[in-house]
Amino acid sequence: MNTVTSLYPHLITPAGAARSIGEILVASGRLSAEDATRIVQHQKVNKLQFGDAALALKVLTKDDIDFALSKQFDYAYLTELDPGLSPALVAAYKPFSRVGEDLRALRSQLVLRWFNGNPMHKVLAVVSPGASEGRSFIAANLAIVFAQLGERTLLIDGDLRAPPAGGQQALFKLEKNAGLSSILAGRAGREAVQPVPGLPGLAVLSAGAVPPNPQELLSRPNFGQLLITAREQFDVIIIDTPAGNAYADAEIIASRAGAALMVARKNRSHLKSTAMLARRLQDSGVALMGSVLNDA
Q1: Would you say residue 83 lies in a domain?
Q2: β-strand 287-294 against 259-265: which pairing, if any?
Q3: What's the chain's Rg over C-alpha atoms?
Q4: Are residues 50 and 190 in the same domain?
């Protein structure tokens, strides 16, 4: 028995049971064993939940309680103490915020409309007509909330035109190794997919080096084979794309995926351009799952 639990028996969890909030916070260094004792005493006297008692004593913050609950319920997210990823990944750093709630609501709609257990309904392209409309932001955060749901999730950066230091590589601060372009050119394999530390179940495939022939690479059988293999290994595959009205890449990717989610940005996206892209996708047989208005 370790020193903490032998001195403070109220923190001992029976074998096979989930750890208590107090145990989790003491083990993580967020709470001292002495303060845990104070909380438990206050909890018993006032007949409160552990978290409510801790907040009343001002020993813990709501963030501390949320952190412990996430561990109890196996809900992975990151804190400011884990600065390994971009703060733009709201679903990872602020899952209980309004944006986090909106992302989970979007996830629920996609589960109902597309990710419904059909083995051919595992891939979704995230598209928008123009630049800087939030495709990468939505794709990345959507992949995170699916991983938090317990789904084996793969995020593919299909924007083969962006600089290597941008896109999903920048958001997830990935190592600069082979990416999608290398796989499509036959110069790399499964090793290019990188797991995301702290977010179990999530893996990212960066775009890789900018090739001179993005459309040709995406049109090759290698891309279709990659998605076939990914469907066997993952439950959800989200693909980021370049601007739809600037290049045909997004249409090629969406056609391979079978479904697309349209992203528009408040005060930036043009309705006519968005409608044109939606029409082209539907004419190509792509199932349009809906649209997201990004007001960030």
Answers
A1: no
A2: parallel
A3: 22
A4: no
